[in-house]
Model the fold of this input.
Amino acid sequence: MKKMLVVEDDDLSRKVLDRIFKSEYQIDYCFSGETFRQFIADNVYDVIIMDIALEGKEDGLVLTRELKSDPVHSKTPIVCFTAHALKRDKEAAMRAGVDTYIVKPVANNVLRERVAEMVEGGLRRGEREKG
Done:
């Protein structure tokens, strides 16, 4: 079974993501930079769903930059799934290294399809969506 890491501090969003993906993925959940590093140290994931706003001092963009600079995880697709809907938010996320950017709320099938594209190679690992 494929592995997914969900970096999300909102309970409702985690429940929705669980419902959408639990039949296809073994899912780990974390809500802050500290818990993120624990999971990344011990696992390799097929995809990471990353929110921008998180508990603690670091946001999802800081964690994305960190992940993309690590040779072990640099090709792991990162789906930014966030309520931050402004153009400048998307631009900042793309500069940080996310592979695709999805604004909440979104239809479940759209999210499922975008994640599948990332994992199965619709966007090859390391080839980011254009701004």
About this structure: Residues 122-127 have pLDDT under 50 and may be disordered. The two ends are 31 Å apart (CA to CA).
